[in-house]
Amino acid sequence: MKLLARLLFALPVVLSVVLPVLPAAAAEIAGPRLQLSTRSLSFETPGQQKSVRLENLGDAPVLVRSPRILAENARSDFFIRPVGPLAIAPGQSATLEISYRPSRPLGGPGQPRQILSALQLPTNDETWPRSSSKEAVSEAEPGPPIASLALVVSADPPLLSWIVFFPLLGIPFILLLPASRAGMSRGIALLTTLVPLCLSLVLYRRFDESFTVAAGNHGLQFIEHLPWIRGFGIEYFVAVDGLSLPLVVLTALISVIAVGASWSIPPTQRLRGYFALLLLLEVGMMGVFVALDFFLFFVFWEVMLLPMYFLIGIWGGPRKEYAAIKFFLYTLFGSVLMLVAIIAIALSSDPSALVDGTPVGHSFNLLKLAYANDFGAGSARSAILGLGFAKTMWVLLFIAFAIKVPIVPLHTWLPDAHVEAPTAISVILAGILLKMGPYAMLRINWMIFPEATRWAAEAVAILGVVSILYGAFCAMGQKDLKRLVAYSSITHMGFCLLGMAAFTPTGLSGALVQMFNHGIITSVLFLLVGVLYDRTSSRELDDFGGLARAMPRYAAIFGLGFMASLGLPGLSGFIGEVLVLLGAFPVYTVLTALAALSLVITAAYHLTAIQKIQLGPFNEKWRVLLEGRDLTARETATLLPLAILIVLFGFWPLPLLDTIAGGVKDVLDMVGGR
Fold first, then answer.
1. Could you tell me which residues come within 8 angstroms of residue 660 by beta carbon, excluding any fewer than 6 positions away?
2. Nearest CA to 200 among 290, 116, 114, 113?
3. 388, 413, 417, 613: which could form a disulfide with 544 (CB 3.0–4.6 Å)?
4. What is the distance, to the nearest Å, from the Cα of residue 428 to the centroid of all Cα atoms in its chain?
5. What is the spatial distance between Cα 90 and Cα 58, in angstroms, rounded to a whole number?
6. How far apart are the first and last CA of the chain?
7. pLDDT digits (tens, 9 = 90+) for 478-532
C-alpha cells in the first residue's frame, strides 16, 4: 500500500514533466509527412467524381510519383487527375480528383456486383509502408513507401454483415432481462434469428448463378472487404459464392428451428444464458461460411467452440460433462493444427496488398493464397518431415477439418455429443457443424493446395468409404435411437468425401447437394427423437411399438424423415447419394461399389427403427404419456418446413444444383477436374 501511495503521488510530477515535452517532440519531427483526407472513397453512380486531399504535415517537401490504380476488375473504371508526379511543400496540400466511369454495367447478369480497387501513391514519406519486393532493386533496398486508399463501388447493401452479426443484438436484451421475465428470452431469440433467415432469402433471391471466376471478383458476390488489423495484413473480408450460399441459408433456417425446439426449456434452467449462447453460436457458424480472410475464418471457427461446449456441458444429459470435454478437446486439437498451418502459410505467402492498397509482406486473403501463390512441388519452399511444404500444410488442415466431418477414426466425440446434447443442439450439431469440415476442405485444401489435393485424393476417397461402411454397421447395432441417427450421419458425410475426391462435376455436385440435404433430413430426425424423449424420457428402440396408432401425425413425419435418410427415390436424400455414386464410379470403381453396398445396410437399420417404434403392438406403459398427445402446434411448426423441403428437393433439386454450379466449376478448374 505504501508503494502504491508513492506511485500515485509521483504520477502528477512525472506527467507535468513529460506532457509539455510531447508536443514539442512532435513538432520537431523532421522530413516529409503525407496525410490523406480519407482512406476510402465510395461511389454510387457512373460519372460520379470525388476528391482526396493530400497534405504535407512535415518540414520537407512531399514527393508523390504518378498515382496508379490497383484493381481486381477493369482498370478503366476509375480516372485520376492530375496523372503526373506531385511535389507538395511543407504546410501545403494538393487535391486528386477521381471519377468513376465504368466500362460495363455493375450488377447486370453475369457482371460483378462490386468493384474493389485501390489508389496507390508512391511517395518519399517513410512513415507509409513500403511496396512489395517486385518493385525493389534488391532485398537490402526495398521499394518505395506507398500511401493508399480504397475505391469501392457496390450495388448491394452490407447484407452479409447484418446476417452474421444481427444475432449479437439480441444477446444484451436477453441478459438484461430480470429473472422473473426470463421466458421473454424465447421471443427475443426467435426474432433475432428470423431476421437473418429473411435476409438470407433476399441474398438467395439476388444471387446471380451465371457469375463465375471468369467474370471477375473471383466469382464472389455481396463482397464486404476492408482492412481490419492493418499492421498484420488481416482484413474483414466476407462474401458468398455457389459453395457457401446454400450453407448460409441452411444455417439461418436451422437456427430458427433450433430456437423453436428449445421453447420447452423451463425458465428455471438458466434460460437466458442458454439463448444468449445459442445466438453467439449462430454468429460463429454463419461467419465460417462467409469469411474469406484466413485469420477471420479462424476467429469464427473458434467462436463456435465455447458456446457449444457450455450448451452441452450445462443443458445436456447425465454424461454431459464427459461429452462436452471430449468435444472441446477434439475440436481444440484441430484448432491448434489449423493455427500452425495458418501462420506457416501466411508467412510463406508472397508479398501482397490489402484492399485499400496498403503493401504487406504476406497475405491471409484466401483468394490471393489460392490464385496468386504457388505452393506446389516446384516452389522454393522447404520440405517438412520429408513432405513438401504444401503436402504438410494440406495434412495439418485436413486433420483439423476431418474432426468436424467427422472421419473415422476421428469420430468418437460425435455419438457422445449427440446423445448428451439437448435436442436443439443436436439439430445444430448435425445440421450445420458437420458441414463445416467438408466446406473448409473445399475452400482451403482444394483451392490453395490443388497439387497436394490430387496427391491425397485416393486416400480421401478411401477414408470416405471407410466412414460410410463403419457408420452404417455401427448404426445397425444401436439400441438408442439418438445414437443410431448420430452414426448414420457419419455414413452420409462419408458420401461427401467420396464425391469431393472424384474431381468430377457430378461427384462434387452430389457432395454439395448431400451436405445441404443431410442438414435438413438429420434435423428432422433429431427433432423426432426429441419429441419422443420429452414425453417418455426414453430413446430405446425396444421400449416402443405401435406409435402410429397413438400419434399418427408424428408417425407420418417419422416415416418421411427415415425414408429420406435411407435414400428413397423422390425424397431429397436420394439425389445427393446417387450423384456421388455416378460421379465417383468411373474414377474409383471398387470403392464406389463398396459405398453402394452400404445403402442396403442403411435401409436395414432405418426400416428396423420404423418397425420397432411405429408398428406392432402398442406398449401399454406409455398409454398415459402418449395416448392423444400427438405433435403440438410448436413441434409441427419446427418439423413441417423441413418436411416440405425434403419432398421439394426430392422432386425438384434444380434450384440447388443451379446455385452450386458456378462454385463446382471454379473448384474443378483449380484442382483439374476430370
1. 242, 243, 246, 509, 512, 513
2. 290
3. 613
4. 14
5. 6
6. 75
7. 999 999 999 999 999 999 999 999 999 999 999 999 999 999 999 999 999 999 9
What separation in angstroms does the CA of 355 have from each of 235, 269, 603? 8, 47, 52
Element (DSSP H or E) covering residue 163: helix 159-175
Strands (E) located in 286-355: 352-353
Cell numbers given for 532: 419422443
* CA gap 488, 496 in Å, rounded: 13
Determine the Cα–Cα distance for residues 410 and 337; give it in Å rounded to an integer. Answer: 14
Residue 566 — φ and ψ, nearest 5°?
-80, -5
How distant, in Å, are the alpha carbons of 22, 220, 241, 511 from that of 213? 52, 8, 10, 21
Domains of the chain in start order, with CATH, are 35-154 (2.60.40.10), 156-386 (no CATH), 449-674 (no CATH)
Q: Looking at the predicted structure, is the pLDDT value of residue 438 above 70?
A: yes
The residue with cell 496488398 is 353
What is the C-alpha to C-alpha distance for residues 613 and 214, in angstroms, rounded to an integer? Answer: 53
Whole-number pLDDT of residue 3: 39
- CB neighbour class for 400 (10 Å; exposed up to 12, middle 13-18, buried from 19): buried
Backbone angles phi, psi at 210, to 5 degrees: -85, -5
Using only C-alpha atoms, the chain has a radius of gyration, in whole angstroms, of 28
Closest CA to 518 of 439, 454, 463: 439
* CB hemisphere CA count around 303 (13 angstroms): 22
DSSP codes of every residue in 239-271: EE-TTTHHHHHHHHHHHHHHHHHTTTS-TTTTH
Q: What is the pLDDT of residues 632-647, one digit of tens each?
A: 999 999 999 999 999 9
pLDDT the model gives residue 668: 92
Length of the chain: 674
Q: Which of 458, 469, 428, 444 shows the shortest CA–CA distance to 593? A: 469
E-assigned strand segments in 347-475? 352-353, 359-360
